[in-house]
Amino acid sequence: MTKRRHLPALFATAALATAACTDDENPVNGDANGEFPRAKTLYSTGTAWGPPGDFNPISAGGVTGLNGLGYEHLFVFDTVEQRLAPWLAESGEWTGAREFEVRLRQGVKWSDGKPFTAEDVAFTFELGKIEGVPYANVWDWLDAAEVVDERTVEFRFSEARQQEWDNFLYTHVIVPKHVFEAYTAEELLSGPLDANPVVTGPYSVHGFDERQVAWVKRESWWATEALGLEVKPKYIVDLVTLGNDEILNMLIEGRLDLANNFMPGIADFLTGEPEITTFYDKPPFMAPVNTAMLIPNTTREPLDDPEFRRAMAYAISPGEIVDSVYAAMVSEAHPTGLLPIWERYYDAGAVSEHGFVFEPSSAVEILTAAGYQDEDGDGFVEDRDGEAFDLQLVVPAGWTDWEAAALAMARDLSDVGINTTAVFLDAAEVDAARESGDFDLQINNRSGLTNSPWSHFRHLFELPVRDTQRLSNFSRWEDETAWELTQELATLAADDLHYPEVIAELQRIAMRDLPAIPVWYNGAWSQASNAVWTGWPTGNEGEPGIYPSFWNEMWGLGAVRMLTEIRRVE
User: Fold this and answer.
1) Are 541 and 506 in contact (CB under 8 A)?
2) Is 17 a residue whose pLDDT tops 50?
3) In terms of Cα–Cα distance, which of 520, 534, 524 is closest to 557?
4) In this structure, what are the phi and psi dihedrals at residue 345, rounded to the nearest 5 degrees?
5) H or E segment at 490?
6) What is the number of alpha carbons within 13 Å of residue 358 lying toward its C-beta?
7) Which residues pair with 104 in a beta bridge?
8) How far apart are CA 294 and CA 513, in angstroms?
9) Distance between CA atoms of residues 210 and 9, nearest Å
10) Could you say which of 73, 236, 376, 505 has the lowest number of CB atoms within 10 Å?
C-alpha cells in the first residue's frame, strides 16, 4: 500500500503557507504577508495555545476547526430540543434491541470530488480497532459496523448503550477511506497528517504558519443545498492565543471578531464602540458549559472520609469566587454538579437530603462530630488519629482565575480548621499529578456539556481506577454501586421512565459521598466584536441554541450554524 506524502508540520517561511485547493474553492491568496480582505474574513483566537501543526483528527485534531469546519459529524446535538439532529446522516434509528441503522445524505462529496459513502463511515469505526486510537473503547460494546448499501450502515451491539452511543455520534468525525487507508497505524496514532485534509465541511485549509491557521470557504459544501445553510465569511483566520491586553485592544479596534478565552473585566467594555457582545448581556455573561469542581484525592487521609469532604463542601463560598474572581461572569454550581441544561433532572428530595450550601458553622460541626479536633490549639484540626496534616490545592501557574479561586478556597478551608495551601505549578506538572494520583486537592472542569447527565456521573464514578487516570474519576473514589448505576444509565433511552429515576439515585450518591465538590459553572468564554460581523448568537431571548465558540467540543453542538447566521456589517 502506497503511503501518502506528508507535508511538514510547520513551514519555515514567515508568510502564510498556502495549501492546495480544488478549483471550486477559488482561493484568494492575499499579499506576501498572508493578509486577507477584511470584509470577507473572520478573525478568531482563544482556542490554539501553540503553533498549528497537528492535522490529524484521529490522534488529536488539535488545529482549530479541523473537526467542524473541515471534518464533520454524522449528527450534531441540538441543545434546545435535547436530541440528535441529522448532519452527514439523513437519519438514524434503532431497528432492534441491539441494532442501529444510519442512512446517509445523498450527494455529499469530499473536497477532492469523490463521493461520501457508507464505506467511509464503516472504515472510520473500524479504525477504532487499532490499539491506542482514542475511541477504541467503543468496540467494548459495538460488535460490527456493516455496509448495507452505498448510503446505509448497520451497527450491531453486544450491549445497547443508548446514551453513550448518542454521545459518540456527535463527538466523532468521519474520515475519507480512500485517503486514510494509506496511512499506517503508527502514522494515525502519532504523526501530524497532511496539512491539506480532504474534508466534507464548509471550509478547506488555506494555509498556516507559526501564528495562525487560515480556512477558505468551499463553494460546494453539501449543506447549502441540503439544509439551506451558507457560511458567510469567505476566510476564517484563527490566531494562536495572544495576551489579554492585546486581544482586548484588537476587539475594541475591530481587528478581531471572536475571542474564546477568559478575559477578566470584559463586562466593562460591553457598551463601547464598536459594541462587544457576550452570550448574556447581564450576569452571568457567559453560557455555563462545564462544572468546575474541587477534586479530593480519596486515596489519602483524611480526604478518604466522606464526612470530611462534606465539611469541606460547607466551608467553601462559591459566591465569593463568582463575584470576586469572575465579576459575575459565571454562576454558582448546583450541588449535584449537573449543568443548567439538565435542570429538569434536579431531584428536590435528593438535594434536601444530601445537598450543601456555604455555611462555615456547619462545616465546623461536621468536623467535630466526625472526630476531627484541634488538640494542639494551632487553629487547625488533626486527623482522627490525632496526627496533624496540611493539604495542598494545586492549580496551573498562570491560570489567573483558577489561581485566585484556589486562594479563596484555601482561605475558606483554613478558616474552619482545615489547613490548606494553594500551590501553583506548571500545567504539565498539574496534569501529571492528576493522572498519577500524586496530589491532595485540585480544581478540574472536565465534566462538561453533553447530550446526557450520564457523562457527568461517568466522570465521577468510572471504574476500574487505573495507575494512570486520564479522563475521569480523578478523585479515585471506588463505588461499585454508583458505577453500575452509571453503566445502566448509559443503556437507557431518554424517554425511558426509569431514566430520571437512575439520575436521581446517582445524584443522591454524588452529594452523599462527594467524590468531587461542585463550586461554579465555568463559562463558554466568548467575546465578539460587532465591527465587521454581527448577529452573534446569544441567550438573551430565551433558551440558548448555538454557543458562539470555536472550542473543539462545540462543533458537535452545531457551532457551524453560527457562521451561517452572522452577517457582515454594511
Assistant:
1) no
2) no
3) 524
4) -95, -5
5) helix 480-491
6) 16
7) 89
8) 13
9) 10
10) 376
